[in-house]
Design a protein that fits this description.
Strand order of the largest sheet: 2-1-3-4-5
Number of strands: 12
Oligomer: single chain
Low-confidence stretches: 394-403
Bound molecules: adenosine-5'-triphosphate, magnesium ion
Largest sheet: 5 strands, parallel
Protein backbone atom coordinates (compact mmCIF):
# COMPACT_ATOMS: atom_id res chain seq x y z
CA UNK A 1 0.00 0.00 0.00
CA UNK A 2 1.25 3.50 -0.86
CA UNK A 3 2.12 5.76 2.08
CA UNK A 4 1.49 9.52 1.83
CA UNK A 5 2.75 12.04 4.38
CA UNK A 6 1.09 15.47 4.82
CA UNK A 7 3.12 18.22 6.47
CA UNK A 8 1.24 21.42 7.33
CA UNK A 9 1.33 23.58 10.45
CA UNK A 10 -2.49 23.87 10.37
CA UNK A 11 -4.01 20.63 11.72
CA UNK A 12 -7.36 21.47 10.09
CA UNK A 13 -5.83 21.51 6.61
CA UNK A 14 -4.40 18.02 7.12
CA UNK A 15 -7.52 16.49 8.61
CA UNK A 16 -9.67 18.15 5.92
CA UNK A 17 -7.51 16.80 3.09
CA UNK A 18 -7.31 13.33 4.62
CA UNK A 19 -11.10 13.24 4.99
CA UNK A 20 -11.75 14.39 1.45
CA UNK A 21 -9.19 12.04 -0.09
CA UNK A 22 -10.47 9.06 1.88
CA UNK A 23 -13.88 9.64 0.23
CA UNK A 24 -12.24 9.02 -3.15
CA UNK A 25 -11.64 5.41 -2.08
CA UNK A 26 -7.92 5.46 -2.78
CA UNK A 27 -5.92 2.54 -1.53
CA UNK A 28 -3.40 4.73 0.30
CA UNK A 29 -2.30 5.14 3.88
CA UNK A 30 -2.17 8.76 5.14
CA UNK A 31 -0.05 10.22 7.94
CA UNK A 32 -0.01 13.88 8.96
CA UNK A 33 2.36 16.05 11.04
CA UNK A 34 2.28 19.77 11.91
CA UNK A 35 5.97 20.70 11.76
CA UNK A 36 9.06 20.03 9.70
CA UNK A 37 10.95 18.61 12.69
CA UNK A 38 8.17 16.11 13.44
CA UNK A 39 8.33 15.13 9.78
CA UNK A 40 12.11 14.60 9.93
CA UNK A 41 11.70 12.16 12.85
CA UNK A 42 8.82 10.29 11.21
CA UNK A 43 10.55 9.99 7.81
CA UNK A 44 13.56 8.56 9.62
CA UNK A 45 11.43 5.68 10.91
CA UNK A 46 8.89 5.12 8.13
CA UNK A 47 9.33 4.86 4.34
CA UNK A 48 6.91 7.18 2.54
CA UNK A 49 6.12 6.98 -1.17
CA UNK A 50 5.22 10.64 -1.54
CA UNK A 51 5.04 13.78 0.58
CA UNK A 52 2.64 16.75 0.47
CA UNK A 53 4.47 19.72 2.02
CA UNK A 54 3.26 23.18 2.97
CA UNK A 55 5.69 25.90 1.90
CA UNK A 56 5.05 28.37 4.71
CA UNK A 57 5.56 26.97 8.22
CA UNK A 58 7.01 28.44 11.40
CA UNK A 59 10.49 27.18 12.37
CA UNK A 60 11.93 25.10 9.57
CA UNK A 61 9.78 25.97 6.54
CA UNK A 62 8.81 23.83 3.56
CA UNK A 63 11.73 24.99 1.41
CA UNK A 64 14.28 24.18 4.12
CA UNK A 65 12.74 20.76 4.71
CA UNK A 66 12.68 20.07 0.96
CA UNK A 67 16.39 20.97 0.73
CA UNK A 68 17.11 18.61 3.63
CA UNK A 69 15.11 15.74 2.07
CA UNK A 70 16.79 16.14 -1.34
CA UNK A 71 20.24 16.22 0.25
CA UNK A 72 19.71 12.90 2.00
CA UNK A 73 20.34 9.81 -0.21
CA UNK A 74 17.69 7.91 1.74
CA UNK A 75 14.91 10.43 1.05
CA UNK A 76 15.96 12.18 -2.15
CA UNK A 77 13.87 9.80 -4.30
CA UNK A 78 10.57 10.59 -2.54
CA UNK A 79 8.50 12.91 -4.77
CA UNK A 80 7.38 16.03 -2.92
CA UNK A 81 4.26 17.99 -3.85
CA UNK A 82 4.36 21.54 -2.45
CA UNK A 83 1.23 23.26 -1.12
CA UNK A 84 1.55 26.94 -2.09
CA UNK A 85 -0.36 30.19 -2.18
CA UNK A 86 -0.98 31.84 -5.58
CA UNK A 87 1.41 34.72 -4.89
CA UNK A 88 4.46 32.61 -4.04
CA UNK A 89 6.16 32.62 -7.40
CA UNK A 90 9.71 33.14 -6.06
CA UNK A 91 9.35 30.30 -3.58
CA UNK A 92 8.00 28.06 -6.33
CA UNK A 93 11.10 28.68 -8.42
CA UNK A 94 13.29 27.87 -5.46
CA UNK A 95 11.35 24.69 -4.74
CA UNK A 96 11.63 23.59 -8.38
CA UNK A 97 15.39 24.17 -8.31
CA UNK A 98 15.61 22.01 -5.19
CA UNK A 99 13.72 19.15 -6.86
CA UNK A 100 10.04 19.57 -5.94
CA UNK A 101 7.93 17.22 -8.06
CA UNK A 102 4.75 19.31 -8.35
CA UNK A 103 2.63 22.13 -6.85
CA UNK A 104 -0.95 22.41 -5.65
CA UNK A 105 -2.49 25.75 -4.74
CA UNK A 106 -4.13 26.22 -1.36
CA UNK A 107 -6.96 25.58 -0.60
CA UNK A 108 -6.30 22.32 -2.39
CA UNK A 109 -8.97 20.73 -4.54
CA UNK A 110 -9.02 17.04 -3.44
CA UNK A 111 -9.58 15.75 -7.01
CA UNK A 112 -6.63 17.73 -8.34
CA UNK A 113 -4.45 16.69 -5.41
CA UNK A 114 -5.45 13.01 -5.90
CA UNK A 115 -4.54 13.22 -9.62
CA UNK A 116 -1.16 14.80 -8.84
CA UNK A 117 -0.48 12.25 -6.09
CA UNK A 118 -1.24 9.42 -8.56
CA UNK A 119 1.27 10.93 -11.00
CA UNK A 120 3.90 11.20 -8.28
CA UNK A 121 3.35 7.62 -7.13
CA UNK A 122 3.51 6.34 -10.72
CA UNK A 123 6.79 8.14 -11.30
CA UNK A 124 8.22 6.85 -8.01
CA UNK A 125 7.30 3.30 -8.92
CA UNK A 126 9.02 3.60 -12.37
CA UNK A 127 12.08 5.12 -10.74
CA UNK A 128 12.20 2.36 -8.11
CA UNK A 129 12.01 -0.29 -10.85
CA UNK A 130 14.79 1.40 -12.83
CA UNK A 131 16.98 1.64 -9.75
CA UNK A 132 16.48 -2.07 -9.01
CA UNK A 133 17.30 -2.98 -12.62
CA UNK A 134 20.43 -0.85 -12.48
CA UNK A 135 21.55 -2.57 -9.29
CA UNK A 136 20.95 -5.99 -10.92
CA UNK A 137 22.85 -4.96 -14.05
CA UNK A 138 25.73 -3.67 -11.97
CA UNK A 139 25.89 -6.96 -10.08
CA UNK A 140 25.78 -8.81 -13.43
CA UNK A 141 28.68 -6.74 -14.68
CA UNK A 142 30.75 -7.44 -11.58
CA UNK A 143 29.85 -11.14 -11.78
CA UNK A 144 30.72 -11.47 -15.48
CA UNK A 145 33.96 -9.60 -14.97
CA UNK A 146 34.81 -12.01 -12.15
CA UNK A 147 34.02 -14.94 -14.46
CA UNK A 148 36.33 -13.44 -17.08
CA UNK A 149 39.14 -13.27 -14.53
CA UNK A 150 38.45 -16.84 -13.44
CA UNK A 151 38.44 -17.95 -17.08
CA UNK A 152 41.80 -16.27 -17.59
CA UNK A 153 43.14 -17.95 -14.45
CA UNK A 154 41.74 -21.35 -15.46
CA UNK A 155 43.40 -20.99 -18.86
CA UNK A 156 46.80 -20.24 -17.33
CA UNK A 157 46.48 -23.12 -14.86
CA UNK A 158 45.37 -25.44 -17.65
CA UNK A 159 48.47 -24.59 -19.73
CA UNK A 160 50.80 -25.37 -16.84
CA UNK A 161 48.89 -28.49 -15.95
CA UNK A 162 49.15 -29.69 -19.54
CA UNK A 163 52.94 -29.51 -19.39
CA UNK A 164 53.04 -31.23 -16.00
CA UNK A 165 50.81 -34.03 -17.32
CA UNK A 166 53.02 -34.46 -20.39
CA UNK A 167 56.10 -34.94 -18.17
CA UNK A 168 54.28 -37.44 -15.91
CA UNK A 169 52.92 -39.34 -18.93
CA UNK A 170 56.38 -39.44 -20.58
CA UNK A 171 58.12 -40.83 -17.52
CA UNK A 172 55.30 -43.30 -16.88
CA UNK A 173 55.61 -44.60 -20.44
CA UNK A 174 59.37 -45.05 -20.01
CA UNK A 175 58.85 -46.83 -16.69
CA UNK A 176 56.17 -48.98 -18.30
CA UNK A 177 58.66 -50.21 -20.92
CA UNK A 178 61.01 -51.37 -18.15
CA UNK A 179 58.35 -52.73 -15.81
CA UNK A 180 57.63 -56.11 -17.43
CA UNK A 181 59.80 -57.88 -14.84
CA UNK A 182 58.04 -56.54 -11.75
CA UNK A 183 54.69 -58.24 -11.13
CA UNK A 184 51.70 -55.88 -11.23
CA UNK A 185 53.85 -52.81 -12.02
CA UNK A 186 52.73 -52.66 -15.66
CA UNK A 187 49.03 -52.58 -14.65
CA UNK A 188 49.71 -49.81 -12.10
CA UNK A 189 51.58 -47.76 -14.64
CA UNK A 190 48.80 -48.26 -17.20
CA UNK A 191 46.36 -46.84 -14.63
CA UNK A 192 48.64 -43.85 -14.17
CA UNK A 193 48.77 -43.35 -17.95
CA UNK A 194 44.95 -43.56 -18.18
CA UNK A 195 44.69 -40.88 -15.49
CA UNK A 196 47.15 -38.68 -17.39
CA UNK A 197 45.04 -39.12 -20.50
CA UNK A 198 41.90 -38.21 -18.54
CA UNK A 199 43.62 -35.14 -17.08
CA UNK A 200 44.87 -34.06 -20.52
CA UNK A 201 41.34 -34.28 -21.98
CA UNK A 202 39.99 -32.27 -19.04
CA UNK A 203 42.63 -29.61 -19.64
CA UNK A 204 41.75 -29.47 -23.35
CA UNK A 205 38.09 -28.90 -22.42
CA UNK A 206 38.94 -26.07 -20.02
CA UNK A 207 41.12 -24.47 -22.67
CA UNK A 208 38.40 -24.79 -25.29
CA UNK A 209 35.74 -23.34 -22.97
CA UNK A 210 38.01 -20.47 -22.02
CA UNK A 211 38.98 -19.61 -25.56
CA UNK A 212 35.67 -17.91 -26.35
CA UNK A 213 36.09 -18.59 -30.08
CA UNK A 214 33.09 -17.85 -32.34
CA UNK A 215 30.38 -20.48 -32.21
CA UNK A 216 30.50 -23.14 -34.88
CA UNK A 217 27.73 -25.61 -35.57
CA UNK A 218 29.04 -29.05 -36.42
CA UNK A 219 27.80 -32.58 -36.17
CA UNK A 220 28.51 -34.10 -32.76
CA UNK A 221 27.47 -37.21 -30.87
CA UNK A 222 25.40 -36.03 -27.89
CA UNK A 223 26.68 -39.00 -25.88
CA UNK A 224 30.26 -37.65 -26.12
CA UNK A 225 29.11 -34.16 -25.11
CA UNK A 226 27.39 -35.59 -22.03
CA UNK A 227 30.55 -37.61 -21.19
CA UNK A 228 32.69 -34.50 -21.46
CA UNK A 229 30.28 -32.34 -19.43
CA UNK A 230 30.12 -34.92 -16.64
CA UNK A 231 33.90 -35.18 -16.64
CA UNK A 232 34.20 -31.40 -16.33
CA UNK A 233 31.56 -31.19 -13.62
CA UNK A 234 32.82 -34.15 -11.60
CA UNK A 235 34.64 -31.71 -9.32
CA UNK A 236 31.44 -29.94 -8.26
CA UNK A 237 29.24 -33.02 -7.80
CA UNK A 238 29.34 -34.04 -4.09
CA UNK A 239 30.08 -37.66 -3.23
CA UNK A 240 26.59 -38.22 -1.85
CA UNK A 241 25.00 -37.44 -5.19
CA UNK A 242 24.67 -40.60 -7.22
CA UNK A 243 25.06 -40.00 -10.95
CA UNK A 244 23.18 -42.33 -13.29
CA UNK A 245 23.98 -41.85 -16.95
CA UNK A 246 22.06 -44.30 -19.10
CA UNK A 247 24.17 -44.04 -22.21
CA UNK A 248 22.50 -45.35 -25.39
CA UNK A 249 24.43 -47.83 -27.54
CA UNK A 250 23.82 -46.03 -30.82
CA UNK A 251 25.20 -42.67 -31.89
CA UNK A 252 23.01 -39.62 -31.18
CA UNK A 253 24.17 -37.12 -33.79
CA UNK A 254 23.07 -33.51 -33.61
CA UNK A 255 24.18 -30.25 -35.22
CA UNK A 256 25.40 -27.99 -32.41
CA UNK A 257 28.27 -25.84 -31.28
CA UNK A 258 30.21 -28.07 -28.91
CA UNK A 259 31.12 -25.42 -26.35
CA UNK A 260 27.60 -24.02 -26.17
CA UNK A 261 26.06 -27.47 -25.85
CA UNK A 262 28.45 -28.14 -22.95
CA UNK A 263 27.28 -24.80 -21.51
CA UNK A 264 23.66 -26.04 -21.70
CA UNK A 265 24.53 -29.24 -19.86
CA UNK A 266 26.67 -27.44 -17.30
CA UNK A 267 23.80 -25.11 -16.45
CA UNK A 268 21.24 -27.91 -16.14
CA UNK A 269 23.53 -30.15 -14.12
CA UNK A 270 24.72 -27.32 -11.85
CA UNK A 271 21.11 -26.33 -11.13
CA UNK A 272 20.25 -29.97 -10.38
CA UNK A 273 23.24 -30.27 -8.01
CA UNK A 274 22.23 -27.04 -6.21
CA UNK A 275 18.62 -28.24 -5.91
CA UNK A 276 19.75 -31.47 -4.21
CA UNK A 277 21.74 -29.61 -1.58
CA UNK A 278 24.44 -32.25 -1.08
CA UNK A 279 22.70 -35.57 -1.66
CA UNK A 280 20.31 -37.25 -4.08
CA UNK A 281 20.26 -38.85 -7.49
CA UNK A 282 21.13 -37.14 -10.75
CA UNK A 283 19.87 -39.07 -13.76
CA UNK A 284 20.87 -38.27 -17.31
CA UNK A 285 18.88 -39.97 -20.05
CA UNK A 286 18.96 -39.77 -23.82
CA UNK A 287 16.64 -41.30 -26.39
CA UNK A 288 15.20 -40.67 -29.82
CA UNK A 289 11.59 -39.63 -30.44
CA UNK A 290 10.22 -40.03 -34.00
CA UNK A 291 8.75 -36.52 -34.01
CA UNK A 292 8.36 -33.86 -31.37
CA UNK A 293 4.63 -34.69 -31.07
CA UNK A 294 5.59 -38.15 -29.87
CA UNK A 295 7.06 -36.76 -26.70
CA UNK A 296 4.91 -35.22 -23.97
CA UNK A 297 5.55 -31.78 -25.42
CA UNK A 298 3.25 -29.92 -27.75
CA UNK A 299 5.13 -27.23 -29.62
CA UNK A 300 4.63 -25.03 -32.64
CA UNK A 301 7.24 -23.91 -35.17
CA UNK A 302 9.33 -27.06 -34.87
CA UNK A 303 10.21 -29.12 -37.90
CA UNK A 304 8.74 -32.55 -38.33
CA UNK A 305 11.23 -35.36 -38.06
CA UNK A 306 13.14 -37.21 -35.40
CA UNK A 307 14.46 -35.50 -32.29
CA UNK A 308 16.74 -36.55 -29.50
CA UNK A 309 15.27 -36.11 -26.06
CA UNK A 310 17.91 -35.36 -23.43
CA UNK A 311 16.69 -35.61 -19.83
CA UNK A 312 18.43 -34.14 -16.79
CA UNK A 313 16.55 -35.28 -13.70
CA UNK A 314 17.22 -34.67 -10.03
CA UNK A 315 15.64 -35.62 -6.73
CA UNK A 316 15.99 -32.11 -5.34
CA UNK A 317 13.75 -29.35 -4.03
CA UNK A 318 11.48 -29.22 -7.07
CA UNK A 319 9.59 -26.06 -8.07
CA UNK A 320 6.09 -24.70 -7.52
CA UNK A 321 3.99 -23.33 -10.37
CA UNK A 322 4.88 -19.68 -9.77
CA UNK A 323 8.61 -20.51 -9.98
CA UNK A 324 8.06 -22.66 -13.08
CA UNK A 325 6.29 -19.73 -14.75
CA UNK A 326 9.45 -17.60 -14.54
CA UNK A 327 12.51 -19.87 -14.71
CA UNK A 328 13.42 -19.07 -18.34
CA UNK A 329 13.16 -15.30 -17.78
CA UNK A 330 16.54 -13.55 -17.60
CA UNK A 331 17.56 -12.58 -14.05
CA UNK A 332 14.92 -14.76 -12.38
CA UNK A 333 16.47 -16.56 -9.43
CA UNK A 334 15.31 -17.94 -6.10
CA UNK A 335 18.86 -18.18 -4.85
CA UNK A 336 20.13 -15.79 -2.21
CA UNK A 337 22.17 -12.74 -3.22
CA UNK A 338 25.57 -13.64 -4.59
CA UNK A 339 24.65 -17.31 -5.14
CA UNK A 340 22.77 -17.04 -8.44
CA UNK A 341 22.46 -14.52 -11.24
CA UNK A 342 19.31 -16.00 -12.77
CA UNK A 343 20.65 -16.11 -16.31
CA UNK A 344 21.57 -19.82 -16.55
CA UNK A 345 18.25 -21.11 -17.86
CA UNK A 346 17.61 -18.11 -20.10
CA UNK A 347 20.95 -18.88 -21.78
CA UNK A 348 19.98 -22.57 -22.05
CA UNK A 349 16.67 -21.61 -23.66
CA UNK A 350 18.37 -19.25 -26.12
CA UNK A 351 21.04 -21.74 -27.18
CA UNK A 352 18.67 -24.69 -27.58
CA UNK A 353 16.27 -22.58 -29.63
CA UNK A 354 19.09 -21.61 -31.99
CA UNK A 355 19.91 -25.27 -32.51
CA UNK A 356 16.31 -25.72 -33.72
CA UNK A 357 15.31 -27.35 -30.45
CA UNK A 358 13.17 -26.84 -27.42
CA UNK A 359 13.64 -27.04 -23.66
CA UNK A 360 10.91 -27.81 -21.20
CA UNK A 361 10.53 -28.95 -17.61
CA UNK A 362 8.39 -31.03 -15.26
CA UNK A 363 8.68 -30.69 -11.52
CA UNK A 364 7.10 -31.74 -8.24
CA UNK A 365 7.75 -29.58 -5.17
CA UNK A 366 9.95 -31.31 -2.61
CA UNK A 367 10.48 -34.35 -4.83
CA UNK A 368 12.01 -34.02 -8.28
CA UNK A 369 12.65 -32.02 -11.41
CA UNK A 370 13.32 -33.12 -14.97
CA UNK A 371 14.49 -30.82 -17.73
CA UNK A 372 13.87 -32.08 -21.28
CA UNK A 373 16.00 -30.78 -24.13
CA UNK A 374 14.86 -31.68 -27.66
CA UNK A 375 17.33 -31.38 -30.51
CA UNK A 376 16.76 -32.33 -34.18
CA UNK A 377 18.32 -35.76 -34.75
CA UNK A 378 20.68 -36.29 -37.66
CA UNK A 379 20.08 -39.91 -38.63
CA UNK A 380 20.25 -40.53 -42.38
CA UNK A 381 22.34 -39.09 -45.21
CA UNK A 382 19.42 -36.95 -46.44
CA UNK A 383 18.80 -35.90 -42.92
CA UNK A 384 22.45 -34.85 -42.52
CA UNK A 385 22.18 -32.66 -45.64
CA UNK A 386 18.99 -31.03 -44.34
CA UNK A 387 20.55 -30.45 -40.95
CA UNK A 388 23.64 -28.87 -42.48
CA UNK A 389 21.42 -26.60 -44.60
CA UNK A 390 19.47 -25.67 -41.50
CA UNK A 391 22.63 -24.96 -39.55
CA UNK A 392 23.91 -22.74 -42.37
CA UNK A 393 20.62 -20.86 -42.57
CA UNK A 394 20.56 -20.33 -38.80
CA UNK A 395 24.11 -18.98 -39.13
CA UNK A 396 23.05 -16.54 -41.87
CA UNK A 397 20.09 -15.26 -39.85
CA UNK A 398 22.25 -14.39 -36.89
CA UNK A 399 24.12 -11.12 -36.68
CA UNK A 400 26.20 -12.47 -33.83
CA UNK A 401 25.63 -16.11 -34.53
CA UNK A 402 25.46 -18.74 -31.89
CA UNK A 403 25.64 -21.14 -34.83
N1 LIG B 1 16.77 -28.50 -11.07
C1 LIG B 1 16.15 -27.51 -10.42
N2 LIG B 1 15.45 -27.75 -9.28
C2 LIG B 1 14.82 -26.77 -8.61
N3 LIG B 1 14.81 -25.47 -9.03
C3 LIG B 1 15.49 -25.17 -10.14
C4 LIG B 1 16.19 -26.15 -10.90
N4 LIG B 1 16.75 -25.54 -11.97
C5 LIG B 1 16.43 -24.25 -11.88
N5 LIG B 1 15.67 -24.01 -10.79
C6 LIG B 1 15.09 -22.72 -10.39
O1 LIG B 1 15.17 -21.83 -11.49
C7 LIG B 1 15.84 -20.63 -11.10
C8 LIG B 1 16.54 -20.06 -12.29
O2 LIG B 1 17.62 -20.91 -12.68
P1 LIG B 1 18.84 -20.29 -13.47
O3 LIG B 1 19.80 -21.36 -13.77
O4 LIG B 1 18.33 -19.49 -14.61
O5 LIG B 1 19.45 -19.24 -12.45
P2 LIG B 1 20.22 -19.53 -11.08
O6 LIG B 1 20.64 -20.96 -11.03
O7 LIG B 1 19.36 -19.03 -9.98
O8 LIG B 1 21.47 -18.58 -11.24
P3 LIG B 1 22.67 -18.75 -12.33
O9 LIG B 1 22.47 -17.65 -13.32
O10 LIG B 1 23.89 -18.58 -11.52
O11 LIG B 1 22.53 -20.09 -12.97
C9 LIG B 1 16.70 -21.06 -9.93
O12 LIG B 1 17.01 -19.97 -9.08
C10 LIG B 1 15.83 -22.09 -9.24
O13 LIG B 1 14.85 -21.46 -8.44
MG1 LIG C 1 21.66 -21.85 -12.65
Amino acid sequence: MNRVLFIDDEPNVISGLQRQLSRLSLDWEFEGVNSAMEAVHLIDRIDFDTIVLDIRMPGMDGIQLLARLKANPKTKHIPVIMLTGCAERELKHEALELGAYDFVNKPADPHELAARLKGALRMKSYEDQLREQNITLEQQLIQSQKMELMGFLANSVAHDLNNILAVIAGHTQLASLKAHRVKGAKADLDHALESCDHGARLVQQILRLGRGSPAECELHDLRDIIDESLMLLSVIIPEDIEVIWSKPHRACTVGVDLTQMIQVLMNLITNAVHAMNGSGVLTIGLSQVPTIEDSHVKADNLHSGPYFELRVADTGSGMDQSTLDHIFHPFFTTKEKGKGTGIGLSVVHRIVKKFGGLVTVKSTVGAETTFYVYLPAVTTAGNIDRQEERIESVGREETNPVC
